[in-house]
Design a protein that fits this description.
The complex is a heterodimer of chains A (265) and B (291).
Chain A (H helix, E strand, L loop, with lengths): L4 H30 L16 H8 L1 H34 L5 H13 L2 H14 L6 H26 L3 H8 L4 H29 L3 H6 L7 H11 L4 H29 L2
Chain B lengths: L1 H5 L13 H30 L8 H4 L1 H34 L2 H16 L2 H12 L4 H8 L13 H25 L5 H7 L4 H29 L3 H6 L7 H11 L3 H25 L2 H4 L7
Helix pairs in contact in B: 2-13, 4-5, 4-8, 4-10, 5-8, 6-8, 8-10, 9-10, 10-13, 12-13
Classes of the chains: A mainly alpha (265), B mainly alpha (291).
């Protein structure tokens, strides 16, 4: 490297670190502010306490939102994982015409603008009497979560060592036994990761949920959306902190699952 | 082992003629068709029949709609440029860093990627509002008397959207950089090219496919943004998605709302279709997508 590379490199590196800091700073800053003892969010907070967390757990509005979110998220994650894993197998292993069409439809929930999806679902789910109900939210979130499972599981199906399957078959295992004894254990970490991503996709979903919620059935982000626009209640900061904490915990689980999958290769 | 051996004669059957694998994809496929695709198709029909295709003439009804369209395109362009200016050097540093730095920088990009968009947008309102963190700090330092207007304008929307879309720029660029032969730049330098020229003539052109993929993805995703402009912008610089929601949930003009939504969908799909002829969109999905 010649002379001027040094300082330029240091400058670039500091720039990248600065950007990285700005990326997480807003989310991190909410954490101390949510523990404010004051009645409104001020910086720096006048004092610290858990007052707004207590408020959250005492509020019917917030807690019922949280319960709905967990129920919808778990149900959507389970459905999406089963359907998505089967689809990944069908897409990666199958040799039939129309596979690109299947793939395009799987990925389309990632590409179609979310407002467009929300409006379309709102009309049709209303006709089907699914709007404003828990099943409606679960079905909508499942379709949005399926791509994450399919993408995760297909990657692992494409990359694992297929000679292991051939070996099992040479030793006399049938296709079904080979699948359950060899293939499934090898791809299971990516199925777990896919399921967790599916849960996050549902847990954080706002726009479709706004349209499919009713006053009786509302997810946590929908409650938060209503509050953010109408009040400056610091409980919102407490909720934001808890939502982020949930996501961070789940992402750590994903990383653990992926590390295990690498270890089994 | 002996159990396994008994099934030996079935070993060849995994390659059955009409693919049994295709059947596995069916339940999920049908699910998406019914619960995802049918709503979009029905909305398309509604845009033509509720009451008539004249819904699409909404843009001629008032200059406001064209202005919203222009605001949306302009904001998306600004956000794309901001993401590129920040994202390219970031990806460059990620590419050249040691494993630990790279892992840290990757996490810093990916954690926001996966954390709630609503939470991050809300966090920006806490930072940017008149009584927010930035204005408080500047006032306490004696740098300003009146709070700076940091949100409810294009600046706020640009900050919030660039923050959320940056990963979609960084990941495809980085993926492309990783495919560049690491010996090329040293080769150029050993042949006498100064580092700057080696970068400009060798590395930069090879990384351009990632740049195009990132720009396309950021621009297209930005066109459809709703939550961030709704919270950080103002009615004067409303974006297209806000117009659609307003049409459907406040003005109850479902046919017109459908027509606007179909327009947004068509623009998105056309841009992606054109773009995917030139760039590998698989890269755009970064670490999630397979090679």
């Amino acid at each position: 490297m010649s002379a001027d590379a040094g300082p330029r490199r240091i400058g670039l590196r500091s720039f990248a670190w600065l950007v990285g800091l700005v990326l997480i700073a807003p989310t991190l800053l909410i954490v101390p502010m949510s523990f404010t003892s004051g009645g409104i969010l001020l910086f720096p907070p006048p004092g610290f306490g858990t007052r707004w967390y207590v408020n959250f757990f005492q509020s019917q509005l917030w807690t019922s939102g949280a319960v709905t979110s967990v129920k919808v998220g778990v149900a959507a994650a389970v459905l999406a994982t089963v359907l998505g894993t089967l689809m990944a197998l069908g897409i990666v292993r199958g040799r039939y015409p129309g596979r690109p069409v299947v793939m395009a439809i799987v990925l389309s929930p990632l590409i179609v603008p979310v407002v467009v999806i929300a409006i379309g679902m709102y009309f049709v789910y209303t006709d089907w009497r699914l709007a404003g109900t828990m099943p409606g939210l679960i079905l909508a979130h499942t379709s949005l979560a399926i791509p994450f499972v399919v993408v995760n599981v297909s990657v692992s199906l494409r990359t694992f060592d297929r000679t292991l399957e051939l070996a099992a078959q040479n030793l006399g295992a049938g296709p079904i036994r080979t699948f359950f004894r060899i293939t499934l254990p090898l791809i299971s970490p990516s199925i777990v990761a896919g399921a967790l991503f599916a849960f996050i996709a549902s847990w954080d979903e706002v726009v479709v949920s706004i349209f499919l919620s009713s006053p009786l059935v509302r997810t946590l982000p929908v409650v938060m959306w209503g509050q953010v626009r109408s009040s400056i209640d610091p409980t919102i900061a407490a909720v934001a902190t808890m939502l982020t904490a949930t996501t961070v915990v789940i992402l750590s689980l994903v990383m653990l699952a992926q590390r295990r999958s690498r270890a089994t290769r | 082992m002996s159990q396994v051996a008994r099934q030996g004669r079935r070993a060849g059957s995994i390659r059955s003629p009409l693919d049994a694998w295709a059947l596995l994809a069916m339940p999920g496929f049908l699910f998406l068709v019914v619960f995802f695709l049918v709503p979009l198709v029905r909305m398309g029909l509604r845009s033509l029949t509720d009451p008539s295709p004249a819904n699409y003439r909404i843009f001629l009804e008032s200059p406001i709609y064209l202005r919203v369209l222009w605001t949306t395109i302009r904001t998306s362009l600004i956000v794309t440029v901001v993401c590129l200016l920040i994202g390219y050097p970031y990806a460059y540093v990620m590419h050249h860093a040691g494993p630990k730095t790279r892992a840290a920088l990757t996490v810093l990009v990916l954690v926001p990627f996966w954390s709630s968009l609503l939470v991050r947008t809300y966090a920006w309102t806490v930072l940017l509002q008149d009584s927010g963190v930035i204005n408080s700090v500047l006032r306490d330092l004696g740098l300003i008397d009146e709070p700076l207007q940091l949100m409810r304008n294009t600046l706020g929307v640009t900050i919030g959207m660039s923050h959320i879309l940056l990963p979609f720029m960084v990941l495809p660029i980085w993926a492309t950089m990783r495919r560049i032969d690491p010996d090329l730049v040293p080769a150029a330098e050993s042949l006498g090219a100064p580092p700057r020229a080696a970068f400009r003539k060798v590395f930069l052109p090879l990384s351009l496919p990632g740049v195009f993929a990132g720009c396309l993805l950021v621009f297209v995703l930005a066109l459809g943004f709703y939550i961030t402009p709704a919270l950080l912008g103002s009615p004067q610089n409303a974006m297209f998605s806000e117009l659609i929601v307003n049409m459907v949930s406040e003005r109850l003009r479902f046919g017109v709302g459908s027509a606007l939504a179909m327009t947004l969908l068509a623009v998105t799909l056309v841009l992606l279709a054109i773009g995917s002829r030139f760039v590998r969109l698989g890269d755009a999905l970064g670490g999630m997508e397979s090679r």
